[in-house]
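[audit] Reproducing an earlier prediction to check determinism. Same input, same settings, fresh worker. If the tokens differ from the archived copy the diff job will pick it up downstream; this log only records the rerun itself.
[audit] input (691 residues):
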Amino acid sequence: MLPRLSPLSLALLCALGTAHAAAQSAAPNDPTAAPPVQLEAVTVSASGLDVDSGAMSTPATVLGGDELVRRRAATLGETLATEPGIHATEFGAGASRPVIRGMDGARVRLLSDGAEIMDASTISPDHAVAAEPLLSERIEVLRGPSALAYGGGAVGGVVNVLDRRIPTAIPERGVEGSVELRGNTAAREAAGAFEVTAGAGNIAIHAEGLKRDARDYRVGDGWAGGRRVDGSYNETETGSLGLSWIGERGYLGVAWTRQRNEYGLPGHAHDLEDCHTHGNSLHCGGHDGDDEDDHDHADEGGGVPYVKLDSERWDLRGEYREPFAGISRLRVRASHTRYRHDEIEDGAVSTRFRNNASEGRVELQHAPLGGWRGVFGLQTTRRDFSAIGEEAYVPPTLTRRHGAFLIEEYPTGDWRFEAGLRHEWQQVEVDADARDRSHRGNSLSLGAVWNFAPDYALGLSLARAQRLPTAEELYADGLHMATRTIERGNADLKAETSHNIDLSLKKLAGATTFNLSVFHNRVNDFIYAHTLDALEGMQLIEYAQRDAIFTGVEGQVRQQLDRVFGLTLFGDYVRARLAGGDGDRDRDLPRIPAHRVGLRLDARQGAWQGELEVYRVGRQRQVAEFESSTPGYNMVNLGASYAGRIASVPYLFYVKAANLTDELAYSHTSFIKDAAPLMGRNLTMGVKVTF
């Protein structure tokens, strides 16, 4: 049974119907009428079967080309944060991870061209994602738990970052590449990136690099903490070298990537470091009860703590078409990552995190058999994680995870059916006074897409997915100052089971286009951080399990007004609660994004493009115990770009003005929302030259 629609979903449905009726009533012979729009069919590689985004039973977002250039930000979370159904964790300027349908952390799988990004960002929101948006070619987002090729634990969705670091084709002119320069005013950011590919015969090489220098950013008007967030700077250096052998039926390549980051950890409250527990109660000594419990560490002369991150990664990618009878494609992915980051206080390393991880996967896509086309795959991952120092709240662990999956599709007439099955198992060995644990899980998804009229598609997806607990949820034990928590793991956790239904309606061509989705997800044995006590800004949390329900709606509808202008209405809403509980405040889950609704006016004239965007993020009153509500805010953004040529060399010049009204805004998804509000008025300018 579908969930009852919220007021926002009803408003979106009414607007969709009104816009569609207006489009149908437009005079077809009127020369001023809006021209027909045909959305580009984009193949989604993360779907497992390279399905077009419009033919999928669950919503998919694909950002690429000039649109991605205009939307890219310093972090992956910020880059995607304005897409319907997607928000960001927002931890200063250096760390920001996508939040999809209210889910984050291990429930959102981050990939680099189909291989998992092996960093420490799932452990804590103050840990940066080891992926660089400015060097990405395309970003794909699959919502819901149906992307079983990458793990049953991806209940929220999958984000796949595609790049060019391993060439898959020889450049037609022998050499190709791009250079991009950009800067902004709010963080006084300066950034530059390049990428170049050269090849001849069967060999191609690729090199790319980036450098970013951003200072403490400026917030909206009226913040009691001042005009800039102390410790919100972000310095990044990234470089990559790749080599490929390319033949008529495939390629095989390897790449080495090095990323170095230094970024601050704003909101660090030094005076809470002596907090400790007595049973299930918190005690924070050394306080006299005054109002100084939130003073910043910088006041004591040591400066704001910061992170020095160093990630070294090797990638192997290959594809071979028609390797033998009955198999249309063989695809391999392998990676090895040595990830290290130090958290530094008062000039000395306080905690060191290390994550040495390897992954391998093999996919075999079979030729059509009885009308069915599918892919079978095997995946294995090894993760050796350790933390040493003052805030080593997770003991050293070794996690081995393996999986086998099968995805099939069957098109017939106006219908397309799909099914996915995955079995995975893991073993977690811990170097502490605790027992090792092993878990198994099975996941299944079924979907159907009905093209009931030209350019219309109705999709239905049903999924049962199991997520295995992470080492952090099992064994955490200690103080974590970045999030102001003392954490306790639970070695008795078992796999959580999600039952999801997703209904989507799309129109892909014509003066009116839209994509609307409603979803309902009941998660049995949902693993969450249960707050046992809170005192002076510190929380004592323990990982526990209870059933939870996620219900929501997301979508957008665009109306082409005339030959230049188009208008888009967009929005999203998610309600996340524990099933049962003693009262309303005991049932709401923490850091669930508030509803959002907005309008976007776009214009295209010759080589010019522009857009004016206005949206409202509501006040979040549905908060968990010990969590404060977050006021709503309005955001006004303006952007323009010009695509031209200099001596036959194409370039794109773009300018963006974000938060034009200098609104003081807080992100409810952030652990440090009060210590690090969102960026204030910001002007970004950049140019990208392609050769």
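[audit] rerun output stored. Observation attached for the diff report: The radius of gyration is 25 Å.
[audit] end
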